[in-house]
Design a protein that fits this description.
CATH architecture of the largest domain: Orthogonal Bundle
Distance between the termini: 60 Å
Number of domains: 2
CATH superfamily of the largest domain: Winged helix-like DNA-binding domain superfamily/Winged helix DNA-binding domain
Structural class: mainly alpha
Order of helices and strands: HHHHHHH
CATH class of the largest domain: Mainly Alpha
Helix content: over 70%
Shape: elongated
Number of strands: 0
CATH topology of the largest domain: Arc Repressor Mutant, subunit A
Strand content: under 5%
Largest sheet: none
Number of helices: 7
């Protein structure tokens, strides 16, 4: 086979494989496409063999699905993956965001101020300390306490919502 024919055969094979999902059937259909193309070219001049090849392939695909009793217009494709999150995951994430917002609101004022300025606004420890009249060590202590408390409360919330009492995002039975 020439490089052009090999490339065209590979393209046809992938075309069939995406639609029928079977390597053997795809190979057979690609081979039959070329057999029909070559048989047609023996009796007639073909101006655009690539276009005729695609036309033959489309007909063979329809014939294949007709013989199997399936619609050629909507073949089942197992390789199509939905990238959108599952609706249950969306609900769970929204609930976790609501819990997080309530927890941040429940923090002592100074701890919340330090946490939001550091994590949300990305301010430096030095800048926060200067603005709030605290030492850098005090800012760091507020951050550690805020993060530890948030983690503990979120885990507690998740365990309370989980039917078996385990942390839903941990595959190890709820250990942290």
């Amino acid at each position: 086979m020439t490089a052009e024919l090999t490339s065209q055969w590979n393209s046809l094979y992938r075309f069939f494989l995406r639609r029928v999902g079977d390597r053997d059937v795809s190979g057979d259909l690609a081979q039959e496409t070329f057999a029909r193309l070559f048989a047609y070219q023996k009796t007639r001049t073909v101006a655009n063999p690539g276009a005729l090849c695609q036309h033959i392939a489309g007909n063979l695909l329809r014939d294949h699905f007709r013989a199997k009793g399936r619609s050629a217009e909507a073949p089942l494709m197992e390789d199509v993956v939905c990238t959108a999150p599952h609706p249950d995951e969306v609900v769970m994430h929204r609930q976790r965001i609501e819990v997080f917002e309530r927890l941040v609101s429940a923090m002592p004022d100074m701890r919340r101020e330090v946490f939001l300025r550091r994590r949300l606004h990305g301010e430096s420890t030095r800048q926060i300390a200067a603005d709030l009249g605290l030492s850098e060590a005090a800012v760091e202590k507020h951050m550690v306490r805020a993060v530890e408390w948030l983690h503990r409360e979120i885990v507690r919330h998740d365990r309370a919502r989980s039917p078996d009492g385990n942390h839903p995002s941990c595959g190890d039975g709820g250990t942290e």
